[in-house]
Amino acid sequence: MRKLIFGLFIAALPALGLAAGASVPLDHIETDHTNKESLQRGAALFTNYCMGCHSMEYARYKRVSDDLEIPAELFEENLIFTGAKIGELMKNSMNKDMAADWFGAPPPDLTLETRLRGESWVYSYLRGFYQDDSRPLGVNNVVYANVGMPHVMVDLQGLCAVEPSIGVDASVEPLSGNINNGDVCPEYAIEGSMSAAEFDQAMYDLTNFMSYMADPIRVERERLGMFVLIFVAIFFIFAYLLNREYWKDVH
């Protein structure tokens, strides 16, 4: 019973605004678990850039391969780098004690990260790194202050020289037509291989994949939910008519 209550509490955190960083302005997104292409790109980004440190040990490669419609042979060849079999859990080989020495704490498992913090938080965090020479790893994050994680996607995004403009909507100057805040990074210390729009799309794909991993049956659950609601509506009609028949002679 306590496990059930705890699980419901964790699931409700994003909605209640209790997740870490809830007071930080965020760039809001809506994920789409039916977009297989986005999920596939996100899976590639996660296994290439995140899984060296972070695991998803509550999921199996085979389930991801089937849901994302990636052939098992292709998945094993291109998305599994640990020598694991397709049916194994998505773990990595990082030693947690050594990771704690390097980063101050072992990198967390990310299977349920979007359920814990929220999808918009993760999306904003991934785009929120900037140069900070006072930090041990030379970077900080506008969403998670004093973060102990390096900017692993610096080759894609580049490195912001100043704090990124997270949570600030783009605007167009009426006279010049110039776009303000079209790029979350006003100034780059290091240029990346992607444009701002390309990197935003890549981080959306990665967040979309992480959202799927936290709730892999969401599409099926929502589909079945419609049938349940239709059944309840029809049942209510018959229940109402039956109740009226029982009580018609009482009044």
TrEMBL record:
Sequence ranges assigned to domain Cytochrome c in this UniProt record: 37-217
Q: Does the keyword Acetylation apply?
A: no
Q: Per its UniProt record, what InterPro entries does this chain match?
A: Cyt_c-like_dom (IPR009056), Cyt_c-like_dom_sf (IPR036909), Cyt_c1 (IPR002326)
State its location(s).
Membrane
Read off the SUPFAM superfamilies from this record: Cytochrome c
Show the Pfam families listed in the entry.
Answer: Cytochrom_C1
Signal peptide start-end: 1-19
UniProt keyword annotations, A-Z: Heme, Iron, Membrane, Metal-binding, Signal, Transmembrane, Transmembrane helix
- Gene3D superfamilies, A to Z: Cytochrome c-like domain (1.10.760.10)
What residues form the membrane-spanning segments?
224-242
- This protein is called Cytochrome c1
**Native source organism of the sequence:** Marinobacter suaedae
